[in-house]
Structures are given as structure tokens and as C-alpha cells.
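Running co-folding for (S)-3-Hydroxyhexanoyl-CoA.
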Amino acid sequence: MSEVVTTERVGAVALIALDNPPVNAASHALRNGIQDAIATLDADPEVKVIAIYGKGRTFIAGADIREFGKPPKEPHLPNLCTQIENCATPVISILHGTTLGGGLEVAQATHARIGITGVKVGLPEVLIGIMPGAGGTQRTPRLTGVPAALDMITSGRHVPTEEAHKIGLLDQVVDLEPRAAALSAAQDVLDGKLETRRTGQIAVTPDEAAITEWRTRMAAKHPNLISPLKCVDGVAAATLPIAEGMAEERRLFTDCMDSPQRAGLIHAFFAERAVAKIPEATATSRDIASIGVIGGGTMGSGIATAALMAGLPVALIERDQQAMDKTAATITGNLDGAVKRGKMTAATRDTILADRLTLATDFATLNTADLIIEAVFEEMEIKKEIFARLDTIAKPGAILASNTSFLDIDEIAAGTSRPADVLGLHFFSPAHIMRLLEVVVGAQTDPGVVATGFALAKKLRKVGVRAEVCDGFIGNRILAHYRKVADYLVMDGASPWEVDSALEDFGFAMGPFAVSDLAGLDIGWATRKRLAATKPPEERDVVIADRICENGWFGRKTGKGYYVHDGRDSSPNPVVDQIVEAERKAAGITPRDFTDDEIVNRYMTAMISEAARVIEDGIALRPIDVDAVYLFGYGFPRFRGGPLFYADQIGAATLVERIHTYAEEDAHYWQVPDILHQMARNGTAFADLNKES
Ligand code: 3H9
């Protein structure tokens, strides 16, 4: 008997129970166990119905993703599904939890599906760079029709119970425990009350118009991805007899599996989960039942909105009535947006605003808050003053957090009598939407406080990533370094729009100059002024952005920056060409051409170099943490897995070679990080460092 699959006989009914925690993934052991159980039970003349159900939190949540990329072991899932469908004895399945991917495909191959109230079903393969590969593209349209199948398979969305029943994926919905549901439904089959049928024998009504429409939609929505179109091709093959359609699905599925996009997207899936594995994970976290926020600007309002949406009461402190009114309007606007996006009802928004949000000017309002997040200007002196005041009013055990994006948390903590209760919680704008939360751990931060930061991230449905103290922590420190290379490329001959377009083709939603225009050029201008005195003399001077700012052009908010903005349309600002030309002339540079590959290679090599130093300095726990920061906070293309996953695709030796070549032009900027040298020498990769912890 298999350890993960057990069988049980109750009269003429045979039950197959799956027990492969945590999510009953269809691992080799599980597939083997089901294959043996079905073969044995089908051969037993006394068994009249077979019912498969899952123990634990879910029926099968899909193929075991950890097995991808390794040599596949028999029985393969599509063959197992065919074996189930062809079984002479009726087989039914009981679906609960999240029945996804290969799990739904197994269920579709059974002869009837019973959903337990609350079950969500879906085919999320497209989200990890593949497509359903065990009959999902063939059997779904047979059960739901072509348009519903295309919607599910190309979006990967989790379909709720009622809808799944309505579109034909579930035959019955019951409110029972899985084993009891299995026995009850099996009895219904015996009593002729539940019809069983082979899905593969159902005819599909062809719908060429839907196929064409989805092809166009997917090509427009995901220009860089291969799997969404493969999903459509798979569904298009469902009008073939089942065996032929399955063969076509296999061919398309293999193309996806062989693509580097699959590896990148699966790395991103695991990155989201790996970052929670921190040294403080076992520390006892503190209860957070109420939150205080200081400052109602864009960040403070966004943080308050995120907390309110997660069900937490928030007290927000502003300077005066006018500022409070502005904050109230911003938070209301944020919540209106959530209503528009279908994230909450208008009634919930009204309740939140009436019952959960308190606006005040008096710091004493925060004396009952469990966690207070300061979100004011990035000025050390102002922050210190606020923390000193908080120290006098916050209740014992309250956590004091700063939303600083680069300042020294230890210096802020040192100004209080309770440095162990202080940490950094660096949110990303807009804070109620962006998923990243850097949890910045100071030298004296209590492990329980760190664990609470991660618990908060989870409650806010964010991805918490542990960072140690340095200027800019993980994300902004790396950004401050590689962003310079975009300016160097422009000084040396590329135009800002060539740089943007090359990086957008690589997969970034926006290029660096378009991002600068969006963020506001005045922000970078102020930072450059602040850091001017600390700039090493060897560092190249690029003042193009300063010259643009001197015209009063700060990007989108002033209508002009690198681009001229007209509503949603942007076109290159011709004056920028003149500024660039003048600056090149002043620096004695003869411009040269850069190919898209050259632009991407320099930009990515710069990003990887600083990311490597962040690992070297212990600012991030592992390379996968840096990947998560970039995936969830900086718009890094998910299908590329993150900067250090991408670095491994290039290889340390090639990166070292590239840096040496670039250093011939600028030896100050282009220096090989020690860790990269070592990897090149030892033939190791960043992935090896992920395994070590
Ligand atoms: C597929 O089925 C292909 C077929 O069409 C064809 C094949 C031929 N495999 O997310 P959680 C781990 S492709 C291995 O924290 P939740 C996860 O890493 C697959 N491991 O819990 C974590 O491990 P750890 C299609 C998996 O309650 C632990 O389980 N299916 C898998 O927030 C708990 O996960 C999918 O893409 C897996 N398939 O969410 C579903 N799934 O504790 C992917 C999870 O060590 N999974 N783990 O960090 C999910 O969407 C969510 O995990 C789920 C649970 C909704 C199931």
C-alpha cells in the first residue's frame, strides 16, 4: 500500500484517499498510488463504484511543480487520466479546497465530480509558463463549452463553487466532509441518482470566432509570453477525437515546458513563498489589533488604506484639519478604486470609513495602537523627533516602525528607550496595491518584532522580504546603482527612448526614463543635490535630468519630462535631444550606436553586480529574496524569474567577462563583485546559495 494513497471498502463502494500534504500535489508517489489503486479496484468484481477524495486541506492542487525540469517518471499524469476515464467501473471525484491544474484534470477524467461548498477550481498552469497538460484543454471545453474553457485556461483564475457548478465543471455541490461526501455520492451512483459519463466522449461545439478572438486578445495582453497562445491552441484542438487532441496538447505542453519562461515563472512562484523562511520565523509574534500611521501623504494614506482593507482599525495623525481633509479624500479615493476593481463592495467601503478610520492631530490618539508606522518626509531629524515623541506615548510592547526607503533604522531606534521594538517597514507606492514590503531589521530589533512584521505582511496580502540596514536596503540600493547606467548609455549615444524601448522589449512594463517621468524628475533632482557632496570624484557626471528639471519639467505631473505627455499619450520630448547633444559635446563624447542587446546587457549586468554586493554584505538573506524584491516591487518581468535567477541563465563567467570589457571605459563604475569572481572560478551559481539556507 502506498503511503500517500490508501483504499478502503464500504460494501460495493471503494474509496481512494489521497494524503500528500500540504496540498496533495500529484507527485510521482501519488500518481503511482492512484494508478495501482484504480487497476486493483477495477479488477475487483465486487466494487461497483470508486470514489476519490483528498485528505487535508484540499483535493489535488496540481502536478508537483518541484518535479518540473527533472526527468519525468511514469506514470505520466495524462496517461493516468486516460486510465481513469477508461476504467470500466464508474469513478467519481470529491473536490474540496483548491482543486487546481492536474488536480482538476484528474477530476475531469472521472465520471462525475462532486464539489464541496467553498471549493475553488482552476487551471492556473498559464501563470507558471505552461498550459494544462493532462487533458485540461481537451476535457474542459467538453464540459463547459469553448468560451468558458478559454476564459479559465488563459486567465488561470480560481473559479468559485457556484460558478463551477453553473458552467458544468461540477455535477453536484454538497456540504459534507470529503469522506462522507464520497460515500454519499457513491450511493447516489448505485441508486441511479447521479449520472456518470466519460468526458472524452462528449462532443465539443466548434467555436472558431471565440478561438480567433482569444488569440488576438492574448497576443495583445501578453506580447512576451508563449504559454497564453499555446493554451488557446490547445483548446482549438479539442474538436479532434480525444486521443488526437491529447497528443496535440502534449506537443504544445512540451514546448512550454522546454521554454526558459517556465523556469522563470516557477522560480517566481517559489520566491513568493521562500521569503517567509527567515531566522525569526519561530519567534512569537505580537498581536496587532490596531494600527497608527503618522503622515497622510501618498505613502501614509496608502499604508492606511492597505491596513483598513485588511480589516484593521487605523488611527492616522496629520498636522491640521486641512491635511486631515486631504488625507480623508485620498483614502476615500483609494477605497473607491478598490470598489471599482471589484475588490470590495460600496457598503464595505462605507463601513470602513465610518467605523475603522480615525483621523486626528494629537499624537496621544496613538497610545493604544499595537503598531505605529511613521510615514513622513525622508529627513533623519524629523524622524528622530517623531520617534522620541512616540517613545513617550506608545504603550509598552507597541511596535514602532518607520516607512523610510533608505535611512538608517539603527540611528532612528537609538533615539528611543526601546530600540528592540523598532523596525523598518518599507512599503512601495501605491502602498495599497504594490505587494512588496521590505521588513528592515535593525541591529537591536527583537526577533518577535521581525516575526510580527512578516505576520503583518501576510495579513495585508503582501510579500514580506527581510532586509538589513544599509542606504536603500535591498531594492533602492540596487536601483541607485544600475539606474546610472541608463544615463551613461544616453551620454554615450543611445536615446532615452531607445533605452526604454529595449528594456520594455526585454519585459519591463516601463523603461527607466518613462518611470522617472512617472515618479517625478524633481525627486531624483533633490536626491542628487543631497548626495552631491558624497559623490566620488571618479564617478561620471550626467546632468541631463538636472537640465530638464531646470526648465520646470518634472515629468508627467508637469506635462513634460523626457517625454511630452498628452493624456495617456507620450512622445519623445525633442528638447531632450538638444540637451543630450549639448551635454555630450561638453563632455567631449562622440556618440555611438547601441543595439537593444547591448543596452539590456549593460543595464542587467549593472543590476546584477549591485544585487551580488547586497548578498555579499548580508543585506538580503538569499539571492531569491532579491528576486522577490524586484518581482513584487520593481516591475521586473516575472517570466525572467528575478535579477539573480536571470544572472544564473547568463552565468558568472560571462558576467565577469562583460564587466571587464565595460571597465575598459569606466573602471570606477564597473567592478567585479568578489562573489561573482568566486562563482566564475568554482562554476557555482546564485541558485546554490538559495539551497544552502
Ligand atoms: C500542473 O498541474 C500541470 C498539469 O496540467 C500537467 C502535468 C503533466 N507543487 O501557496 P502555499 C507548496 S501545474 C509543489 O503557501 P496556500 C508551496 O510551495 C500545477 N508544491 O499555500 C508551499 O510549500 P512551502 C498547477 C506546491 O494555502 C506549500 O505547498 N497548480 C504546489 O496559500 C503551501 O503552499 C498550481 O499551479 C505544487 N503544485 O495556497 C497550484 N502547490 O510550505 C499552485 C503548492 O515549502 N499552488 N505547493 O513553502 C497554489 O496556487 C497554492 O499553493 C494553493 C495553496 C492555492 C494550492
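Result summary
The first helix runs from residue 28 to 42.
Residues 22-23, 25, 61-66, 77, 98, 100-102, 105, 124-125, 128, 132-134, 136, 273 surround (S)-3-Hydroxyhexanoyl-CoA (CB under 6 Å).
Job closed.
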